[in-house]
Amino acid sequence: MHNISLQDLYLNDSELLTAQQHTVDYLLSLDAKRFLYEFYRTANLTPITSEGYQGWERSNEINFRGHFFGHFLTALSQAIVESHQTEIQNELLEKLTTAISGLSYVLANSEGSPGYISAFREIALDEVEGYEVNQEERENVLVPWYNLDKVLAGLIATHVNLADIDHEVARQALDLANSFGLYVYHRMQLLPNRNQLLTIEYGAMNATLYDLFNLTNDNRHFKAATYFDEFELFEELSNDQDVLAEKHANTTIPKFLGALKHYQAIDKLLGDEAYLALNPILLENREIYLKAAVNFWDIVVESHTYVTGGNSQSEHFHQANQLYYDAENRQGDCTCETCNTYNMLRLSKELFKVTGEKKYLDYFERTYINAILSSQHPETGMMMYFQPMGVGYNKIYNRPFDEFWCCTGTGIESFTKLSESIYFYDNEANTLLMNLYFSNTYYAREHNLYFETVVDRTVGKVSINVKAIESEKPTKMINLKLRLPNWAEQQDFEMNDQKQAMQNEDYWLATVMDGDVIKMNWQYKLAVSAAHDNPAYVAFTYGPYVLSSRLGKENIDAYHPNGILVRVGTQETTYQDYLTLKKKSFCPEALIEDYQVLSSPDRLFEIELNNVDEQIKFAPYYQAHNERYGIYYKIRHAQEMLAVNNENRTVSLVDLSLFDGNNSEYTHHLEQHKSEIGVAEGKTYRQANPGGAFSYRFDLKRYTGAIKVILTLHKEDVDSKLNCSIKGDTTIAQIIAPIAIETKEPWVKVEIEATVTTNEPVRISFSTDASSSSARLFGVEIQKVTHE
Ligand SMILES: [Zn+2]
Asked: Coiled coil: which residue ranges (predicted)?
């Protein structure tokens, strides 16, 4: 199975068209030259504008510069293919041409290393690869390989998407990608510390280099990619071990896209016996890469995924099957980073192409609607970062010109490839597979046939008309395969007015020709989905749509800052976060036994539950904008269940368990000098070097009272010390050291009790003396001390 040509596919769904149009308008409002500003400066060339962009693209403070430019290239190239309007295509192409020729100029005239095209100096790479870099030399680029991956991916997308549209721009883009790929290859030969490289977010650097290899057939690009394969992690996942707890989700997901691309790239190498003879390990290990990607996907979707298809809390995976705890007892405003779903969709699509398994398509539909479409404001076209799952939240969208978040970058990509996975085509079987049900027209030109699909999404009615493109010419038959969605328990199916029997649960397949008419009625039903760790914590779906409650517009624009320049929605806790079952017994199914579907002026439909005391209207979450909403509700009369579930839970106020030198630490306002991060036993830590110190600020969300600060240390650090001071209204200073204990686990927990009497955040500082390094700090957790 592979993707069809998007030039032959026309979207007719009004919501998808609006989403696409907003994104095109946004792309056209951005200035390619301003993005090039830092690229020129880095190459010692005079920039063509007086200034660059700010936000994550800034250079004066911690930044991610270059990343958005890479997304911009990809999105422009996709929009050119998808837009179908010559005038708009020309405007988009002009921007893309400016961007690519700017980069070509930089490549030709730079005094830096051959092939190095970047918005920051190479010293930023030195830093993450384990070289000593002086403070004043630093570039403040947190995750340089991540940013470079986006640029390389943008060049490859430009080459692929423009191949039939503008040969010259397509050729230049490949030249740039090729040179950069060789730069990476040469740089990797000198890499001092591979483990260090792999700990710092690098996007899909392995996947992107395998894509490049796929285009160039240059083994050096393949080799360069392998440096970014985290084989130890792949082995763990290939053994079905869920080692995801506390890993940064958006760092981890693309690694497995890379694993899968590695597996696919071996196909190409099979023709190169000489290379394989030199590297026999490639064939030996090949299946591990596939298994790793397959198992990773299963683990994420089964044990770490909310009803919308989203995952993570504060950008991290946590313990398996703990979604209730993560959404309600950790910071609920930071669940489900949108980038993660963009990457899970990429992985799902590729896994489907390799394995043919339908479960990837079912997940694709759920996530495409409820995590991607849900993230864009239907009037402004701006996009979300986190998507809260609890009750009382609002949606917060990026500002267009001074933020440039990761999720805005992946967002402009998602909304310029909305039609990409509607169909797949299998050449050998001459089969067209319809995956997503949105109104569209597709021209199968080789067959002289077109498919006009009209979908009434309010009720789930689909009709497909097959017609000849040129009626006077012969047509060629084609097999049409329709995905039967996993949420549709029964469906009415007709072809040319004849009722159709279903061949199996997954697909309906028939040979079709000019004049055929297929009609389907999916019959939506209300379904309930509970969290693994709390059967009384539930969300609802109706057909493919996740529902959310309609709660009103109170403080609709309120937000608070998070991480680096990120803004997140707020929770109005005045809204009731439970539903009261009229039946006294606990049974989530009772919730959906009796309900009404109502028509709505601004949503596909609204639903009212008849078996609960509350009169709350639910409607599709993806359409929830300009109002507060709730997705997961607690069920009252199931309080006993809740109590049982919470019995052994301590109430955590805040925790820090990932020392990434990135968003995780900067969310807590990291300040440091002479300290470093590292990894041991699969966990990250920060450690003060002799004379060094570091500190974090923890926001306890207006909590006052007794707290317990729990520090996680390593039992091997018995001879090291860590000075710790907790600065609240009074300062507690302690010198702590792990105590040697005989446990299987390497961790030692040290607890410090304190009292907080003001609403101010608490700062906790760590330091060591001038003669020795501190003990390594693997985690900080602050808990409420509750005395019953
Ligand atoms: Zn993101």
From this structure: none
Residues with Cβ within 8 Å of 642's Cβ and at least 6 positions away in sequence, in order, are 534, 536, 634
Q: Is 111 helix (H, G, I), strand (E, B) or coil?
A: coil
Instruction: Give residue 359 CA to ligand 1 midpoint distance, Å.
Output: 25
Q: What distance in angstroms lies between residue 337's CA and the mean position of ligand 1's atoms?
A: 6
Ligand 1 center–CA 407 separation, angstroms: 4
Select, from the ranges 455-469, 710-724, 740-754, the one with the highest average predicted confidence (pLDDT). 455-469
pLDDT digits (tens, 9 = 90+) for 446-456: 999 999 999 99
Q: How far apart (Å, rounded) are the C-alpha atoms in residues 67 and 57?
A: 8
Decide if 418 contacts 16 (C-beta within 8 A): yes
More confident residue, 366 or 653: 366
CA 405 to ligand 1 centroid distance, Å? 7
Return the structure tokens found at 296.
């990773």
| Cα(236)–Cα(324) distance, integer angstroms | 26
Question: Can you tell me the distance from the alpha carbon of 577 to that of 645, in angstroms, rounded to the nearest whole number?
Answer: 17
Q: What are phi and psi of 573, to 5 degrees?
A: -80, 0
Asked if 412 contacts 26 with a C-beta cutoff of 8 angstroms, the reply is yes
All domains of the chain in start order, with CATH: 31-190 (no CATH), 423-486+489-521 (2.60.420), 532-645 (no CATH), 652-784 (2.60.120.260)
Q: Which of 406, 384, 297, 277 is nearest to 346 (CA)?
A: 297
CA of 338 to the centre of ligand 1 (A): 6
Q: Could you give the CA distance from residue 2 to residue 5 in angstroms, rounded to a whole number?
A: 10
Q: Give the type of residue at 183.
A: Y
Neighbours of ion ligand 1 (CB under 5 A): 337, 339, 406-407
Residues 6+ apart with CB under 8 A from 375: 338, 383, 384, 387, 407, 411, 414
**Residue 166: which of 84, 89, 88, 102 has the closest Cα?**
89
Q: What is the mean pLDDT of residues 19-24?
A: 98
Give the integer Cα–Cα distance in Å for 73 and 173: 10
For residue 744, pLDDT beyond 80: no
pLDDT in tens, 108-163: 999 899 999 999 999 999 999 988 888 889 999 999 999 999 999 999 999 999 99
